Please model this.
Amino acid sequence: MPRTSATPRPRKPAALAVALGLALLPALGPLAHGQAAAAASATTTERITWALEPATPEGPDGRVSYRHTLDPGAEVTEHVALTNFSEQPVVFEVYAGDGVLTSDGQFDLPPAGTAPAGAGSWVAMGDPGGALVEPGTVQHLEVVGGGTVTLPFVVRVPADATPGDHPAGIVAAVATSTADGVGVDSRVGARLHLRVTGDVVTALAVPEVTAAYVPSWNPFSAGTLRLEFPIANAGNVRLGGTVVTRVAGPFGLAEGGTEGPDPREVLPGASVPVTAEIPAWPLGRLAGEVTVTPVGVGADAHTGASVLIQVPFSAWALPWSQAAVVVLVAAAVVAAVLLHRRRADAARRRFDEAVAAARAPAGRPGVR
Model:
């Protein structure tokens, strides 16, 4: 969940971040990280600003996210605080859902109304009175201006839950409209790091590497070898990774490479796309390998082995621009030689004609 730019408010904790996370409905913008969001409403000049934070029954407790390691069949009770920093009352949608990653690697939750199939279905939210509702239910909750409502929720791990990480989160969203009446939706979420006890498997995989060479327009400059590959999490806990790429021409000529970009987080069973670009000379057949090393993420602790992944690749890098230069140079040389020969032949003809004219006998004078 991306962090956002800070906006001070009177009753707001110093570390609280404010984000504009707006997108046209029904699509949703990125989920603001566990703290706050803001949205402009066409019906009022006041911006709607709110926060969703981990809490105790007494209110926010300063945690950035929830982190629990539970046995299969166990449960834990938690609380979340929803604060409306706006002056007017606001109706929020509050719900729990499965954790997913966006295409750019940001943590997110599916839109409201999406039935959770993973750990989101383990979360039963409570209403302000403490009564639990069915998992997946979207509550519509009005919070007065400047008010905070603390909601309980229970995480119940199924008895047959598999070991490892099961990402989830809780969302508070508000529907607003722009000045031209277009509906928008802004959300803020609190992340749930849920790990079920059992054997931990740390494994990343690179199913394939696609390599393509893009020549430079400048024949005296290296081109670019573009690599595209997914990094998949074949284990049961979230992992990051470090990426190192090496490439060389025939016989190891012009060896080069790059480090990164490194995937910040790959959820179990998911994958993230990676693109790497390496300067390379067109030496014909280029060959190399992508090396990915699994690493832990944040405060995660695991004892699984970090197995190095090395995936070879190859690509043709033909010197078309350099060949074009050679052809042009050769053509220029041939043209210069032909022109020189033509000029030499013309000069020789003029010389021969002059010599012939000089040797010719003078004409006799006429007789009267």
About this structure: The CA atoms of residues 206 and 231 lie 5 Å apart. The chain is about 10% helix and 40% strand. Confidence is low (pLDDT under 50) at residues 1-30, 40-45. Helices lie at 320-359.
